[in-house]
Task: structure prediction
Amino acid sequence: MTDSTHGSGINATCEACGAPATIHISDMKDGVATIQHMCAACVDTTEHNRDSRRRCRGNAALIIVVGAMITLISVLADWLRFGSGEGFGSQQRQGVFIGAVLLMFGAVVRARTLFVAAAAAAILSLLADWLAFGSNAGFGRQQIIGCSLGISLITIGIWWSRRYG
Result:
């Protein structure tokens, strides 16, 4: 929790540099309440902000990975023959199986990026017939839409990591 001194009557100095503290960060660890007094210049170097930036970079990585997965499956849909046959094809079964295995592995080792990428692969494999990936000769409308969506997600993820990371 962060609090500013405006009107609070707290007169403290920054624990890092000794300047007047304008930000007060309260935390509870192991049942003990602590308050850090920081100036605006030093607060960027605190563990709190490093964790926040790390989470932001992780979220940006998730968006980029999902975008890359959608783009890759869209580009390779003809080669993978997703949605080209009647019913649920062997390539789709393999995609769902590999996605499910990686999904479970990502959950067990708590690798969020792997978990999300595997979920995206499994979902795209499940929906390949409905999305009609690879059903048209050449690079079809669905593949163009998939690539556009994937590239958009990659762009958003890169922007997010630069803006907030």
Notes: The helical segments are 40-43, 47-75, 77-80, 90-108, 112-126, 128-131, 141-164. The radius of gyration is 24 Å. Residues 47-75 form the longest helix (29 residues).
